[in-house]
Amino acid sequence: MRLRVQIPRVKPERMKRPEVCPKEGCQGKHFKPHQKNCDKPLQDTEYDRVNVERWKCLRCGETFRVYPEGVSGAQRSDRLKGANVLLYVLGLSYGGVGDFMSGLRYPVGKTTVYRDVQATGEKVRNLRQAWLRGQKVRIVGGDPTHVRCGGEDVIVGVTVNAETGVTLDICILDNEKAESLTDWLQPMLERVGAHVLITDDADALKTAADQAGVHHQVCRQHVTPNLLAFIAKAADKVLKSPPPVPQGLEISVDQFLEDLMLLEWIMLGHPGHGDKLLEQLYMRYAAAPAPKKGRRASIWYRMRNHILHLWDNWRRLTCYRTLKHTEDLEVDETNNCSERAIGWAVKERYRTMRGYKRQRSILNVTGLTAWLRDQSPGYDMSLLFAS
Prior knowledge:
The protein has 387 residues and is an alpha/beta fold. 45% of the residues lie in helices and 18% in strands.
């Protein structure tokens, strides 16, 4: 993973004047200097001490410290905290970050690194929610994935802007049933004013899209390979040892092979009259008998089901084409945007781990990784440590 970001810097000469009294319930906005020169020891790569100021609130009389840019009330500078966070996101373990920093003569315990990462992850989640308030997204991609947490399987839902690839939100799902997926997707789609949803071929996701009232594009890559694999195996089986045609099904082996070729052409070409062709194909195999209990389905019955599935979902598979012609809207035929977001934000960091211990950590780490990945080169991480 490559993250072209800037870790915070310490600037002793930049002292921000207070705007609101930090005392709870005061909200005072008028202050006077109380002490200009306060020496503060600091752990940093460049400064071992900095000057801080004390100010007094004219409303409540409270005095408080004001720190230079890159410095807080903590013993360590934001620069060291930012280095800890960046090293962890790039793949080092909490202990590994501690070892690396100790090698640079800035020793830090793995628990401290953990706290830095979690605190920054919490800040990022708040920043993302604030950022989302003003977003309008026409096309949303969504996909659930799985990670281990405390020895159990946890479902993580990821939504992205399918036009830009920017992550919209990452959350924990109860299950992958239609009701849970609808509760996850519908508020996000309404929040950003989405017009189209792109997902995989799961029936529960189709229900969620219909409940949300948006156009639904099913990822071709979740349908095409399975169908082409069936066509190849079916053709090979029929050519080597043609199975008997069941009673009530008026079709020859040659016709079956022609139908396989037609089905492949429909799947790959997405012709405008594909639904009509699928309807004709289905009628040809509709009488194929279902298998008896404990018996394997015949090749005729499997052909029937593949055709029926494609016919039922034709408008979802060709949504990209319909919207291109009717609304001049470019919609991707695949859900690669969501797959990429999951790969970089969730799986890339997770593959070097033994799992999470808290669900909160899942959200903090994946949300932080996604946020840094989505920023433009040179993004200043100081925003993540500002109080």
